[in-house]
């Protein structure tokens, strides 16, 4: 793109930004963001004009740029989620029920659950799946802000989660060093920036284990046994009376969240819940 066009585009954004801050002062996504982040976002957009993570259209206003999603795609996602939220969900794992009542078949068949309840936000299919793959494998970090807002909406609407603490599922050892980041760790970092976010404790650690992808639930449980742990000194810093929210990106068999919950339970935590972005 010719630089004069870019200068014009950026100038338009700055003008739009100044006006929109005045018009939507309470809801504007840049409110509360420090001046360096605002300059960084505008600078980044000037050098690398962004496109929507879902439909590929050019991002224009600050909210679109911040979330890496155009207004229309965000509206569509909200509408689809509202529709899905009306469906019956399993009391234990949060997945939609087909013909079952209250609890889904796998949960009823007695897979061990150390958590009280799980809430899952989106199915891991179609455009939702694309959202996660673009974030995770396409390194589109702006999407973390979108996910963080949706998690915060979920947490603040559930009375059991008031006064809770957030515990992210730990990354495999060396992952942050190798890749520069981990999708759950970064998500929690962005979550912490939202006003009213519960305190975050990275108290769970992980030892090396086999890649889980091709394994069944039982194999995954065996693979993770003793590999997720919490030191006594970490446990001593948190009151076990506090409810805990374990955060993960995708729930497939539920083995990772179960193993994290089992470790927390062993350390004396009684009320353990989970919030996952996607269910597979
Ligand atoms: Zn879009
Ligand atoms: Zn279930």
Description of the molecule:
This protein is an alpha/beta fold. It folds into 2 domains: 3-74, no CATH class; 87-279, Rossmann fold, CATH 3.40.50. Helix content is 45%, strand content 11%. It has 12 helices and 6 strands. The chain has helices at 3-23, 35-47, 62-67, 71-85, 105-108, 126-136, 143-157, 175-179, 183-192, 217-224, 232-236, 255-266, and strands at residues 117-123, 165-168, 205-206, 228-229, 244-251, 272-279. Strands 1-6-5-2 form a 4-stranded parallel β-sheet, sandwiched between helices. The protein has a two-stranded antiparallel ribbon with strand order 3-4. Helix 12 (255-266) links the parallel strand 5 (244-251) and strand 6. Helix 1 (3-23) packs antiparallel against helix 2 (35-47), helix 7 crosses helix 9 (183-192) and helix 10 (217-224) crosses helix 12. The longest helix is centred in the first third of the chain and has 21 residues, at 3-23. The relative contact order is 0.12. Residues 16-31 have low confidence and may be disordered. The structure holds zinc ion (ZN) (2 copies). One zinc ion binds next to helix 4. Residues 90, 92-93, 95, 103-104, 106-107 line the site of one zinc ion.
């Amino acid at each position: 793109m010719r630089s004069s066009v870019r200068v014009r585009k950026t100038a338009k954004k700055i003008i739009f930004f100044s006006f929109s801050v005045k018009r939507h002062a309470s809801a504007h996504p840049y409110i509360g963001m420090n001046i360096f982040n605002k300059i960084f976002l505008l600078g980044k957009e000037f050098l690398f004009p962004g496109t929507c993570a879902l439909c590929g259209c050019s991002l224009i206003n600050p909210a679109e740029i911040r979330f890496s999603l155009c207004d229309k795609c965000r509206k569509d996602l909200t509408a689809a989620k509202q529709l899905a939220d009306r469906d019956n969900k399993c009391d234990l794992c949060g997945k939609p029920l087909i013909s079952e009542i209250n609890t889904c078949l796998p949960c009823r068949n007695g897979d061990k659950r150390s958590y009280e309840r799980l809430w899952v936000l989106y199915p891991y299919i179609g455009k939702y799946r694309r959202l996660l793959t673009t974030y995770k494998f396409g390194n589109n970090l702006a999407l973390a802000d979108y996910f963080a807002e949706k998690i915060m909406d979920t947490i603040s609407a559930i009375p059991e989660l008031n006064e809770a603490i957030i515990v992210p599922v730990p990354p495999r050892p060396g992952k942050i060093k190798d890749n520069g980041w981990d999708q759950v760790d970064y998500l929690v970092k962005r979550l912490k920036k939202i006003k009213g976010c519960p305190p975050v404790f990275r108290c769970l650690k992980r030892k090396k284990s086999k890649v889980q992808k091709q394994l069944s639930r039982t194999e995954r449980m065996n693979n993770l046994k003793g590999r997720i742990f919490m030191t006594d000194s970490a446990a001593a810093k948190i009151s076990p009376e506090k409810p805990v929210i374990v955060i993960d990106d995708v729930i497939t068999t539920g083995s990772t969240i179960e193993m994290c919950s089992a470790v927390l339970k062993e350390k004396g935590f009684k009320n353990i819940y989970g919030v996952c972005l996607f269910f597979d």
